[in-house]
Amino acid sequence: MRNVVVTGAAGFVGSQLAAACLEQGDRVVGIDLMTDYYDVAQKESNLAALSGHERFEFVRHDLATGFDEFADGADVVFHQAGQPGVRASWRNQFDEYLSRNVQATQRVLEACTQHGVERLVYASSSSIYGNADRYPVDEEMRPKPYSPYGVTKLAGEQLCTLYGQNFGLSVASLRYFTVYGPGQRPDMATHRLFEAALGGPVFPLFGSGEQRRDFTYVGDVVAANLAAGAADVAPGAVFNVAGGGDHSMLELIDLVGEIVGTPVPIDHQDPERGDVTRTGANTDLARTVLGWEPTTGLRTGLEHQHAWHVARRN
Ligand SMILES: NC(=O)c1ccc[n+]([C@@H]2O[C@H](COP(=O)([O-])OP(=O)(O)OC[C@H]3O[C@@H](n4cnc5c(N)ncnc54)[C@H](O)[C@@H]3O)[C@@H](O)[C@H]2O)c1
Hints:
10 helices; seven-stranded parallel sheet; binds nicotinamide-adenine-dinucleotide; alpha/beta; Rossmann fold; globular
C-alpha cells in the first residue's frame, strides 16, 4: 500500500484527487490550511466526503511553515495546495501568493528531498505562458506570465525543476488549463455561469467574451496526476494538462444556457488586468511520456457540473 500525501486536500482538485487515491487503495494524508479565499463551507463539504474513509487522515497545516513531518514516510506527494486566482493577485494580496505558491512549494521540495520521497507531482498552471506568440502552446515555449499569480506559479514550477536537477528529486509539474467540473471553485467562470443560469447572481462578463480558454475536466486532471505519480519521468519534467481544444467565453455561455435550458443573464464589464486573451495547449508530451490524454468532452463535462450545481441547490 502506497503512503500518499495530498496538499490542498480540501480544495477543488485536491479533494477529488485524494478520493481517487483512496479508491485505488492508497493510504492518504490530506493537508490544507483551509484559507478563506472562497467559502470555507465548500472545503468542509469536500472534506466531509473523505473523512469517513479509514485510510484517510486530515491535518490542518500551513505548508509555508514546513513539511518535514509529512514527507517522512511518504511515497508520493501530490502538491495541489496554492493560492489560485489571477484577478486577486495584485496589490498587497500578492504576499499571500508568495507565501502559498512560492514559499510553501520550497518547503515541500526541501522536505521531499531530505526524506527521499519517491515522486512529487506539482500543480502548475497555464498562466505561466501569458499571451503566447503562437497556439497551441507546448512545453518548450518561453514562459511569460501576465499576472502576479502566474509569476508565483512559475516560480514554484522552476523551484521544482531545479530541485530535480540539483538533487535528483523525482518531481513532475503539470500545467493545468482552466479546470472545470463538479466541485469547481466559486470564483471560476463556469461555476458563476451555472449559478447565474439557475437564478443566482448575474454573470459578470469581463471583456468582449472573445477570449478563448482550453477547458479541462477535473476527472482528466485527476487522471493526469495519477499517471504522473507512477510514470517514469525525468527529474523536473513539465507537462501540459489540457482539455484539447479552445472555446470562446461566448461559446461557453451559450453551451451552459443550452444545458440549463435558459439563457445566462450577463453583466458586461471592462476587461480585467492579468486576464490573457487565449489559452490552448498541445498535450502530445503528456500522451507520449505519461500515457495520459483527456477523455471528457466539454459538453459531457459541463453536464456533470450542471448536475452538481442542481444537487447542491436542493
Ligand atoms: N482550478 C484551476 O483551473 C487551476 C488551473 C491551473 C492551476 N491550478 C492549480 O491547481 C491547484 C489546485 O487548484 P484548485 O482550483 O483546487 O484550488 P483550491 O483553492 O480549491 O485548492 C487549493 C487549496 O490549497 C489550500 N492552501 C493554500 N495555501 C496553503 C498552505 N500554505 N498550506 C496548506 N494549504 C494551503 C487552500 O486552503 C485550498 O483549499 C492550485 O495550486 C492551483 O494554483 C488550478
